[in-house]
Amino acid sequence: MKLLHEGTITNQVLHKKLPFSMKRLYLEDLPVIEQVQAKVIESLPEKASLQALTTEEFLFILNERGLLVGAFVGDELIGFRALLIPEIDEEHLGWDIGLPPEDLRKVIYQEISVVLPEYRGNRLQQKLAEVIMKELPNLDEEFRYVCCTVAPLNIPSLKDKFTQAMYIAALKEKYEGLKRYILVKDLENQTVHYNGHVTVKLDDLEKQQQLLNEGYVGIGFQLVHGFHELQFAKPVL
């Protein structure tokens, strides 16, 4: 099995550094993938903050409609990250960010990213993102846009996406009525300049929606009086 990355990671329960590696996951890994997802969801205080994948969705990805990369300590899967080539339907995120129909096939989704609780605090989600994005060109199809959804107030997930230079392009109801940010990264236009910066409280979704309607995008966090606020700005075209 081809190793994609090797390093060391701290087990926060044992307070011990351990060697770990990353490799691509396949169909035979499905049972342990679902076990890790279940453990992570069980550990979350707010279960709705993570949109879990179904068995059918994992099978879809593993049957050459995407990519899964896992992190291992020895033979134990401790986290994974997924990319999904979506079906083009009315729920496609490309519609939400205003792409024309001919560009929808150029979209790939960053799907679920999970890390077992005892290995959090190691920037493992970010490392998994770096590795899986390096593997993206090895897929048979070519993609220009990387999209994903994130629940409002999910600061760790938003930080993860902002670190990858993704930006909030829309705020929509998805997954049967749940509010979600739609984030995107244009792989062909990664150097974007902004002006008109403004900060908005995390829970002021009405103001955020107004700014998005006016052409602003969400680009990061800013500390205001010790609290995180979302930073919005207008792309310079």
Keywords:
237 residues, alpha+beta, three-stranded antiparallel β-sheet, 24% helix
Question: What this model shows, in words?
Answer:
The protein is α+β, with helices and mostly antiparallel strands. Helices cover 24% and strands 39% of the residues. It has six helices and eleven strands. The strands form two sheets. It has an eight-stranded mixed sheet with strand order 1-2-3-4-5-6-8-7, sandwiched between helices. The chain has a three-stranded antiparallel sheet with strand order 9-11-10. The longest helix has 14 residues, at 30-43. The model has no long low-confidence stretch (mean pLDDT 92).
Q: Describe the main β-sheet briefly.
A: 8 strands, mixed
Q: Segments where pLDDT lies below 50 for 5+ residues?
A: none
Overall mean pLDDT stands at 92
Strand content: 35-45%
Strand order of the largest sheet: 1-2-3-4-5-6-8-7
The radius of gyration over CA amounts to 18 Å
Helix content, binned percent: 10-25%
Form type? globular
List the total number of helices. 6
End-to-end separation in angstroms reads 44 Å
Order of helices and strands: EEHHEEHEHEHEEEHEE
- Secondary structure category: alpha+beta
Topology of helices and strands:
Elements: E1 3-11, E2 16-24, H1 30-43, H2 55-62, E3 66-73, E4 76-84, H3 93-96, E5 107-115, H4 124-135, E6 145-150, H5 155-163, E7 167-174, E8 178-186, E9 194-201, H6 205-213, E10 217-224, E11 227-235
Parallel strand pairs: 5-6
Antiparallel strand pairs: 1-2, 2-3, 3-4, 4-5, 6-8, 7-8, 9-11, 10-11
Brief description of this entry?
With 237 residues, the protein is α+β, with helices and mostly antiparallel strands.
